[in-house]
Amino acid sequence: MAPREASKAMRRAVSEEDKASRRQDILSAAKQVFAEKGYHATTIADIAAAAGLSYGSIYWYYESKEALFHELMSAEAASLRQHLAEAVAGASRAGDPAAPLAAAVGATIEFYDADRALVKLLFRDAFALGHSFERHLAEIHGSFVDDTERLVSVLQRQGVLSPGPTRVIAYAVTSLIGQMAHRRLVTDDGLSAESLSRFLVELVLHGLGRAGAPPA
Amino acid sequence: MAPREASKAMRRAVSEEDKASRRQDILSAAKQVFAEKGYHATTIADIAAAAGLSYGSIYWYYESKEALFHELMSAEAASLRQHLAEAVAGASRAGDPAAPLAAAVGATIEFYDADRALVKLLFRDAFALGHSFERHLAEIHGSFVDDTERLVSVLQRQGVLSPGPTRVIAYAVTSLIGQMAHRRLVTDDGLSAESLSRFLVELVLHGLGRAGAPPA
Amino acid sequence: MAPREASKAMRRAVSEEDKASRRQDILSAAKQVFAEKGYHATTIADIAAAAGLSYGSIYWYYESKEALFHELMSAEAASLRQHLAEAVAGASRAGDPAAPLAAAVGATIEFYDADRALVKLLFRDAFALGHSFERHLAEIHGSFVDDTERLVSVLQRQGVLSPGPTRVIAYAVTSLIGQMAHRRLVTDDGLSAESLSRFLVELVLHGLGRAGAPPA
Amino acid sequence: MAPREASKAMRRAVSEEDKASRRQDILSAAKQVFAEKGYHATTIADIAAAAGLSYGSIYWYYESKEALFHELMSAEAASLRQHLAEAVAGASRAGDPAAPLAAAVGATIEFYDADRALVKLLFRDAFALGHSFERHLAEIHGSFVDDTERLVSVLQRQGVLSPGPTRVIAYAVTSLIGQMAHRRLVTDDGLSAESLSRFLVELVLHGLGRAGAPPA
DNA sequence: AATGAATGAGGATTCATTCAT
DNA sequence: AATGAATGAATCCTCATTCAT
Hints:
4 copies of one chain form a homotetramer.
Chain A: H1 8-37, H2 44-51, H3 55-61, H4 65-92, H5 99-114, H6 116-123, H7 131-157, H8 166-186, H9 193-206
Chain D binds a DNA duplex through helix 1 and helix 3.
């Protein structure tokens, strides 16, 4: 197809692709800066500079600093969620019934390790940024719990987990995974991702109590 | 002894007592306001108004807004820590070896419920307030993990818990308790403190796996 | 003559016609938007959108926002001026010597009523838009006074008005007409255009004093 | 009364006096700057500089730039209104029934002459400053018309003016006076205040028509 | 002719902190 | 001790205008 034949529609499409790609650039730049300095300490000018634009231009692509951050949260959450879903799906095809749990733990740790600062910002700090962000973060967290809850149901049906209130279980598991992965970003005690993963699976499946100990 | 005879030293002592008490007043006022509006949205003037002082006076008692918040963090943490220690100590005197764990869970939930907004601000949001607060919060969290670690060691020696890396175990337990208590502040699914407590103890001691299920 | 044979000159002529017509479109669009939102609150983008163009294009037709507004002022003023001239000319052919005055009053009211918001913007607010606009507005006002002055001279020569300083008289009459017509845009007391017109003619010709009252 | 006895109430009173006086200073400074540069071109920093303060301090005394301008409008209007009332009252005690009218005209001219730029800004330009100012200006204008209407009623009862709709008459008279006084600020044709005053009184009382001319 | 991305000057406002009284 | 006036750094956002395509 010769360039000559490029229709107006096509040209517009190209332009919109450009715009989308530039939005991506800005988002990436914002990701770096936010991660490094935190939300409040980051200025639009910082982001613009990191993106190689003048600060006025940011507003061509995003309504406001707040909107930009919201988009970053969504994108990052979607990315992690997909990462998790793929890992769990892969593990489900294996024979080991505990594999999906281990996969989720491992995938979360991986993801957190790959983008420490940002994860910290998005999955912890966003709480402190005002109601708008808090609501958004709760929503995101809820979607992770949803995913976990589905996994819990499956595992219960398979007899891997004993019956119980799926929502609370899912919340506990999600929190455990999130917190322990987050811990690795903060402390540095040489606990390998694999050890941690094994530890968590063991905790969730069998607890930490002495085998022969009397039940509570 | 007539007031007239009060020595300069005494007057200063009284004055310093006054000062300490006034600091307390300010801290209480700040607690309310910070809890309601969050750190950034709270102005010194808000705190002063709540304390019945003019805003300039705050600086006679506290170095800065930041220093004030740090003190608030320390005070709240100390308060919770003591609350926990007492609960655990009381439970240790009971015969049931799992009692201290249940007590810690229960005490945390109680404390969180009593001061929802502030707990949220201090134990979550402080992360987002910049490096200074983050360090302080990590320190506080560390001291809770220390306490838990000691408890874990004892329980291991008593044979309640099986041997294992105490630090990681303590971290996991602390996180679980903190997260689940926090959850109650956010969602509202009627899960009673008691049920939650029982659930957590069961999870920690025996896990959620099917009794007869093959070990991972 | 086949389109093919259209000379370059002709095409340019056509093009210039197009350009003129497009300028008109923009002017009309600007008129609406300025009238609705005022000068400062109106953005070039607003005007472009109303004209169905992209905002960058406005600059192909007009130097600047300011130049556009100036042109709008001129056009509206010319339009009103012509409207008045025609009304007065028509009335002059009638026998009644007071008719031209009544015609001017009536025509002004009509014009104002037909485009309330814009008239307000152009004939009042332009004063507040900076020196450039102020000068232009003064010029426009002056041309109305000129017209009125000529009419006053004629009426004096006809013996309808008594002799007197034509410039001041013209200014007073112009102001009266403009202000009273403007008043109808602001207050809403049901005073008909006709009553107002009669009132003004009576005021100008005979004043409001009691017939038998002693002269000042 | 020795300074020692100054009660807390007194000290506060002094402080409040100070505050009021500082507000006055700022208002005066703002008056100069607004008059010179217009509303939009005037920055808070300009006003602060003129008042010998830093720009942040303006906000100690006034909510916003807008609030400051509103206060200026009110103050200026009140001042003119009082000036007029006194002039008219003085003239009423004279025997001449037309004196109050002449006095109003003269007083308005005086006031306008004394503060050209500001009058222009407040009584004309404020219209262009957005709905909030427009409403305020209409209110102010209305109060002048009210005053004039009362005067018209009196003059009608005294037989100086013939009966007629007082509101419209008042509006016409107010407009005439305001416009003609304003004209002196713009054109410069050497028309003395006195001549203008006489001209307006004559116009209002007897009109400009030829004495013997047939009624319209 | 037309587009729309990019620019950057420009300004109001907030608020922690200082300091004279 | 307490007050509250004064300061000024800091930052978001708007929008007219330019210019490469």
